[in-house]
Each structure stands twice: as structure tokens, then as C-alpha cells.
Amino acid sequence: MTKPGWRDLAIGAILEKGGTALEFKTGDWRTYKPIWSQEKCTSCLFCFIYCPDFCIEIEDGKMIGINYDYCKGCGICKEICPKQAIEMILERR
Amino acid sequence: MPIKALTGNEAMAEAMRQINPDVVAAYPITPATEVVQLFAQFVADGKVDTEFVAVESEHSALSACIGAAAAGGRVMTSTASQGLALMHEMLYIASGLRLPMVICEVNRSMSAPINIHCDHSDTMGSRESGWIQIFSEDSQEAYDSVIQAIRISEQAFLPCMVSLDGFIISHCMQGINELTDTEVQEFIGEHKTPYSLLMDGHPFTIGALDLQDYFFEHKRAQIEAMENVLPIIKSVGKEFSKRTKRGYGFFEEYMLGDADICLIALGSCAGTAKVAIQELRDKGIKAGLLKLRVMRPFPYKEIVSALFNIKAIAVLDRSTSMSTMGGPVFIELRSALYDNPVHPLMVNYIYGLGGRDIFPRDIVEVGQKLENIKRTGKIEKMIDYIGVRE
Amino acid sequence: MFEIRWHGRGGQGAKTAALLFGNACMATGKYFQAFPEYGPERMGAPVLAFDRLSDTPITIHCGIETPDVVIVLDPTLIETQNVKQGLKKDGKILINTAESPSFMKDKLGLDTQKVFTVDASTIAKECLGKEIPNTPMLGALTKIAGLISLDDLIKDSKVKLEKKFRRTPEIVEGNIASIKRAYEEVKG
Asked: Would the pLDDT of C12 be above 90?
């Protein structure tokens, strides 16, 4: 990809939109992958609070899964889960 | 146009009142204290619509100004010396984010040893920060330049500091030709901003990390913006003089037309030098003065062409670069003349550090020495000092 | 160019007097500068203030070394300060004292310069009830300097004083009365 020259950049080094982190998928940084067990999960949402990348997906106050596009596999969710509903397995691509 | 008796500080505060900025965040410091104090009084008396943010340091003052400017406000502040130094980190942020704003700056020496009086070390210390810098000879120029600075800054999308000399001008009362409030508002016009954080429905990111792959391009664009400032200063000055009959360019030429030796000075000393030039002329010495007004960007092409017929130049610097190569104006001017086919002889005089007074007789002596240099073609001392005890 | 140096003590109003005189001259179309000695001012400490007056624009921005007129607001300053320093050969010195001009001339060892005296402290006490000698000295200065008329001075000072003492018109009247008295009573 050719990057723009200095004449074509926005003034003041601003990015002309918000939320650009969404365009940068960090899922491929992962060595270990969290696997969520719906049976064991009580939707206490501790993992949601602790996840540094907002990767715990929620609907109507209940956990529904993990966003692997951005999850870096840090394992904090596994550590914090009081019901051992998350286990970490080696990523296979 | 009413004439008012004002000190330099009062004149700058009065310009701020007439400009009526959206936000002023400031912290008082000698000798600029009055600017902030008087403006705070205008706010308290309801004479302006400004949101005045009283902060705990100059670092915070400029930080608040940056936030307010990014939000789309017309923003001003005032400081001096250590205060400007404490703003140093934020100066680069204001200019890098291309935010227009104006600092009313009062020139004062930098500690240590601690001193509250005038020299240009503070302002010169920030000449690489990407701010437009305008020096003033007296209160009238400071008043006029602060009003012009709003236009210049908002047209260039670069911040601007207007300075006057501490105590010598800041505390000296003189008659000022004031514009009316309406004239000032008409002149400065609608506030222009490169972007605003408060643009409804258009979220964007400001101050994002900018690494090896983009930073250089952003800086290159900033340098280009600085290049574009000169024509803006020229056109704003022209329009101002149409209204006031007071003309402003990058510098003022005083008896330079037929001169063969030239003194270069900025700030209040340039006024004293005019008296000295008269005396030198009475002695039959064809001396002229170039009073530099715009230090950033440095109008080197224009200066060089104004000095075309000059055989010998003495640059009076009220600060030193500590490079042992002389003061900042000397160094830059010497560099500017490098490509000239004919090189004038050049000497540098450092004077007035920490408020040491300079009299016409001191400058007449410089002129006589310079005449001698012109005649003999010999320079004994490239860098010398005026009024320092041996 | 006409240059004046004021000697006073912090709190006696040397700076205010310099500003008022400069303002009054400006009102008659003159150019002026008025500035205090650049430094911290403390109550009682010797302080200096200056006026520069001219019919043409003033560009010089240094201190005043050879004044045309020196004004001494407090006669005790003569003991510790060199009040005649740099005074022009044909210059004038105006002192707030009950002593005679010839006595002060001898005391200062002056030769060619003219000495004027006025008891501004007593005038101030009687007109204002306070020993602030700066405004009466303005009256005496107007008489000896011959730059502006007494009417010019009173007209302009009244405007300035009325702004400052909006709620106490008796202070304005007292000041004006003291200016008039000193103008009449200055000796030399």
C-alpha cells in the first residue's frame, strides 16, 4: 500500500474519524485462545470488566461469546472467572 | 480614533478585552502579571464573554488553552520568562496540532541567577517551537500586533506570540491610538479553526500516536505552514495600515535607503537606536537601522534584499545562544547572507542582559566602531558586549 | 525633549504623580512617557519615577540620566540619595520643604541650577487631612516647568481623580485645592 505524501495529510495530524482501533485487528497476536463454556458460565461478567480489549460479547446482560478478531489471548478472563468457564488452548491456524 | 494613556501591559490587556476571546487560561508572572490581572477584572466586571480559567501553573495554562482551541474556541493567554519556559512542552503541542492562539508575552530574562528584568532569552528560547513570533518596540506596536496576531494565527492555523520588553515597555505609560471595539471585531472577523472537537456528529481523533511512517510528513507539512505565514503577515499588516495608517511588515527600515552601515535590533532598543542613528548622521556617518519585528518565521530573503548595499552590519542581540557563536539574530542573519555574492562585514553586540540599560551613546559608539570596520575592512572582535564590566 | 525625575518614598505617590503629569501633558497634545524605576517597590524605600515629554513622537526607551527637572517629594531623601545627579546645568530642582530656596541651594551645593521649594506636606495635610504630597507637587511643577497651564492640569487631573474616587468627591476637591495652593505658594 502506498502511503500518502505530506500534502495529502489532514491538518494537525488529526485522524478524520473516531474509533480507528476497530480497523486494526489484533486477533492474530494470539498464541493461546480462550474457549468459553456456556454451561459453566453464570454471566457474572467479571471477564467483561477485566478484558483489556473489550472482547467479551454481551447481549441483554448475558455473555454470548468472545470476539476473536481482537482477542490477544492474554488469559486474564480465564484467571478472573470464578466458575472456570474459560480455558486457554494453544491456537492452531 | 481615541488616544488613551496606557502602559504596555494595559495596552495588551485592552487588546484582549476588545478581541473578547472565548477562553483565557492564565497564570500571572512578573512582569506580565498585570495583563492577567486586568483581564481577570474585565471578566469579573462582565466586560467580556470569556471563560477565564485560573490554573495552578503555566503548563496547565497552555494545556487548557490547547484543549479549548481544539474544541474550536478563540483562545489567548499571557506569560513571561520562567512561565514561558514552563509552557515549553505544550508550545510544541499547540503548534504541532496546528491550533491558532495568541500569547501576550513580556520579555524577561531566564533564571539563574534570578532576575525579573528584560532580555529576550525567554522568547528566543522558544524560537524552535513552531510558533509565530512578533516583537514590539513599544506599547502601540504591541497593541496593534496582538490584534493582527489573531488574524495571522487563525489564517495560518499556527499559534503566535507577541512580545514586548519587560518593565521598559510593560510598565511605561504612553499615549496609545486605540481602535474602537467595533473596529477590532470587524478586523479580526469570525473565528477560524482548522477543526473542532465539538463538531456535531463528526467524531475524530486528535493527538494520536504518530510514528516513523507518518511523523516526518506531518512535520514537513508544518514547515510548509510556517513558509506560508510570511504572505499572511504581509496582507494582514497591509489591511491594518489601511484602517490605522500604521504600517507593519516583517521589519522596519529606518534611514536605510542611502546607508552603508546598518544596525539590526529588535524590541525597545530599536527605538533608542533611532536616536543614535540621528546622532551618527549628524557626525556624517551614513548609518541605518533595520528593526526586526518578525523573528519566526525568519524573513531572511526580505532582510537580505533590504541590506543589499550595506557594507558593514552590527547585530544587537538582547540574548545569547550560548553556542559561543553569538546571539540568535546574529547567527541567523549571518547564515542568511551566505549565498550573497558580496558579503558585508558583520559583528555582534550582546547587550542588556537582565535589564541592563542601553543608552543612545552606547549605540553611537557601536556605529562609530562599525564605520571604522567598514573603512579598514578589519574586524577585531566578532562578538562583543555592551555595558558589561570587565 | 523635556525630562523629569521624581524622588519619593514607596507610598508617597511618586509614580502616580508622574503618570498624572504625563496624562495632563498628553491631553494638551504632547507625546509622553511615564515610568517608575524598574524594580520592586516597598513602603518607605526610596523610589524613582520619570516623565519624558515632547512635541514630537518619542522613540527613546532608556532611563533618564540628565533631567531638566528633579522633584523631591520627601526632603529627608536629600540625606541619603544623590538627588542632583545628572541635573542639567540650567535645570530646576523642586523640593517639598518649608525651608527657603536659598537655604536648600546651599545645602545641596548647587551652582547654576535653580531651586524651588514648596511646603507640600503642610498643604496636603490642610487640604486632604493626609500627608500625601504628590498632588500639590504637581501644581508646583506646572508653575516651574511651563509646559502646560494650571487649567490644563486641573481639568485632566479632575477627570482622573473622579474616576478613582467616585464615591468620595471631597478627596477630589481636596486634591484640586492642594494643586492650586502649591501653584501659588511655590518659591524660587
From this structure: no
Q: How many CB pairs under 8 A join B and C?
A: 62
- B170, B304: one domain: no
Q: Which residues does C146 contact at the CB level (< 8 Å), separation at least 6?
A: none
- Total of domains in chain A: 1
The neighbours of chain C, by the rule of 3 or more Cβ pairs under 8 Å, are B
Residue B124, C-beta contacts closer than 8 angstroms, at least 6 positions apart: B295, B319, B321, B327, B328
| Alpha-carbon C107 to chain mean position | 21
Boundaries of domain holding B139: 3-243
Name the closest residue on chain C to residue B358, using Cα atoms.
C62
> Residue B35 has which C-alpha cell?
495583563
End-to-end CA distance of chain A: 25
Residue of B nearest to C1 (CA): B275
Dist CA B98 CA B225 (whole Å): 9
Nearest-CA distance A53 → chain B (Å): 18
CB contact under 8 A, B174 and C32: yes
The answer to whether the Cβ–Cβ distance between C61 and B172 falls below 8 Å is yes
Count structural domains, chain C.
1
Q: Residue C35 sits in which domain range? A: 2-185
Q: Where are the beta strands (DSSP E) in chain B?
A: 3-7, 23-26, 51-54, 75-80, 102-107, 132-135, 160-165, 173-177, 251-254, 261-265, 287-292, 294-296, 312-317, 345-350, 383-385
Taking only the tens place, the pLDDT of each residue in B195-226 is 998 877 888 899 999 999 999 999 999 999 99
User: Is the same domain home to B184 and B328?
Assistant: no
Query: Distance (Å, rounded) from C-alpha B258 to C-alpha C55?
Result: 28
pLDDT tens across B262-287, in order? Answer: 999 999 999 999 999 999 999 999 99
pTM here is 0.94
